[in-house]
Write a structure and sequence with these properties.
Strand content: under 5%
Number of strands: 3
Oligomer: single chain
Helix content: 55-70%
Strand order of the largest sheet: 1-3-2
Number of domains: 2
Shape: globular
Bound molecules: zinc ion
Number of helices: 14
Distance between the termini: 53 Å
Low-confidence stretches: 303-323
Mean pLDDT: 90
Largest sheet: 3 strands, mixed
């Protein structure tokens, strides 16, 4: 059955008509799921994952007993089939939507020159916005009203440029703190979307500089943008002109970091000089992010005794592995 499903969905992904059917179906599905799950105060999707884990574990153990082997194997196989089917129907097919880059009027290759101009622009914007937000007693940025940030994200979803997003924004608040935040600190996962419940989870223990933009990113998945870098770009559109300074600062800061990551290979001196031009407030935020990463990396090494740069790797959402498509979208979108 699973093999048949692989072939079926592979076939579907090649048909524009079927993919656009799944796009329309997603609109209905996300709204229904958000109505069902959003009011639950904790992440119901996380609970589902835990229960699924326990269920699978139980049946995996039963595989070793002669008496229960056959029935457990059957249960596991049926379970995997259902899981895979729902995943593809609720989410997987959205990876085959037309890429956003095709919808932009300019489709040039990104250049370091243009990235530098934008980096300087966002450096200035960041400095300004940073002076408007609050900080803790160590002088590090803190969010004072996360609810307001979330409300703003949902409101901004409704006014995205029509040529880029034709998605419906039901403005249902389904942001949840993850139940796995301790684990997330060590894996470097900032947030994730649950395609089975349409909830957006984020790690509430992260340095606050990450949280508003991560929420905007996850909310873009909720809207129906599956690809990581497109979710970054939609998150950028949501946050960059926001009147909420906490959301705007986090977004400008993410954009600046992404630009610097792109520039650094060709011109490390430029990046160094920009880092030096950070305001004192921004420097404190940067130092705090660094300590956070190092601290969790260090503990991870202590616990497991092997070097693990997973945190840095998965931070390469804003790092070097997959940055270029976001940068590509950004540079083609921004007029200088
Ligand atoms: Zn994502």
């Amino acid at each position: 059955m699973l093999l048949a499903q692989f072939l079926l969905f592979y076939g579907f992904s090649k048909s524009k008509m079927v993919v656009s059917f799944f796009e329309s179906f997603f609109e209905l599905q996300k709204k229904t799921h958000q109505v069902i799950f959003s009011w639950i105060p904790f992440s119901f999707g996380d609970l589902l994952y835990i229960l699924t884990g326990i269920f699978l574990f139980y049946h995996a153990i039963a595989l070793f007993k002669k008496r229960t082997r056959r029935s457990s194997l059957l249960v596991i196989l049926i379970g995997i089939n259902i899981f895979y089917f729902l995943y593809q129907v609720f989410w997987g097919m959205l990876y085959f939507q037309d890429p956003i880059i095709k919808k932009l009027s300019s489709q040039k290759e990104p250049t370091t020159e243009k990235a530098k101009i934008l980096a300087l622009k966002y450096l200035e914007n960041c400095k300004k916005t940073r002076s408007l937000v609050k900080e803790d007693r160590n002088g590090v940025f803190i969010i004072t009203d996360l609810r307001a940030v979330q409300k703003e994200i949902l409101a901004r979803q409704t006014s995205l440029p029509k040529n880029i997003s034709g998605k419906k924004a039901p403005e249902i608040n389904s942001f949840k703190p993850s139940l796995f935040k301790k684990v997330m600190n060590f894996t470097g996962i900032l947030g994730y979307y649950n395609p089975f419940t349409a909830e957006a989870q984020n790690n509430s223990q992260l340095p606050n500089t990450y949280i508003p933009f991560t929420s905007a990113h996850e909310s873009s998945h909720q809207l129906g943008f599956a690809r990581e870098q497109e979710a970054n770009f939609i998150g950028y559109l949501i946050g960059i002109d926001s009147k909420n300074p906490e959301l705007r600062y986090s977004t400008e800061y993410f954009t600046l970091k992404s630009l610097l990551n792109f520039i650094v290979e060709e011109d490390p001196e430029f990046v160094k000089s920009v880092l030096q031009q950070y305001s004192l407030q921004m420097k404190r935020d940067r130092a705090y992010e660094k300590t956070f990463v190092l601290k969790h990396q260090g503990l991870l090494n202590d616990f497991f005794g092997f070097t693990n740069n997973l945190f840095l790797k998965s931070n390469q959402q804003e790092g070097s592995v997959t940055y270029s498509y976001f940068i590509n979208l950004l540079l083609n979108y921004e007029r200088i």
